[in-house]
Write a structure and sequence with these properties.
Chromosome partition protein Smc; 6-stranded antiparallel sheet; single chain; binds magnesium ion; about 20% strand; about 180 residues; 6 strands; alpha+beta; binds adenosine-5'-triphosphate
Length: about 180
Amino acid sequence: MRIKRLKLSGFKSFVEPAELHIEPGLTGVVGPNGCGKSNLLEAIRWVMGESSPKSMRGGGMEDVIFAGTAQRPPRDFAEVVLLADAGDNDSDLEVVRRIERGAGSAYRVNGRDVRAKDVALVFADAATGAHSPALVSQGKIAAVIAAKPAERRMMLEEAAGIAGLHVRRKDAEQK
Ligand code: ATP
Ligand code: MG
């Protein structure tokens, strides 16, 4: 699976709708302090199902919604659309997550309303999930470099797709 496009609206500092095209290969994000680099990575995690406010650097679920500035009023929703190449038969995958103040968050996959759990399974298989080591956040680069060989191997194995098998097994055991 490869993330091809990302659309953000009302998500953290991305108040106006923004669309990013992600080219094949390694992608780095550069820019001045506070311009939204980390917010971008959080948007990717969020649309893939991240729900822990701690890893979203916020106090609550709704903190991802643009909170307003002296010049701009706050928004009442945040939406992130992720378009990916599913890999297998070149079919595109579109995942949408949207949160509205006071109404919680909802997901759509290829136009259909789905549960958070379904989204987790989509990305568990693809090894691209919110906790995937394929997403390297600020400060984590040092951890990867400093890791012992065995730890680093585990990170790479997870990135290569073994984590997906783990989630599927847990899901199967619950049935
Ligand atoms: P650095 O180089 O310092 O790591 P960065 O490019 O990673 O910076 P971010 O942390 O992504 O920057 O963005 C921080 C900005 O996002 C801050 O200006 C902060 O006020 C803004 N921000 C975060 N959450 C919200 C929100 N809910 N509403 C409005 N602005 C927000
Ligand atoms: Mg940052």
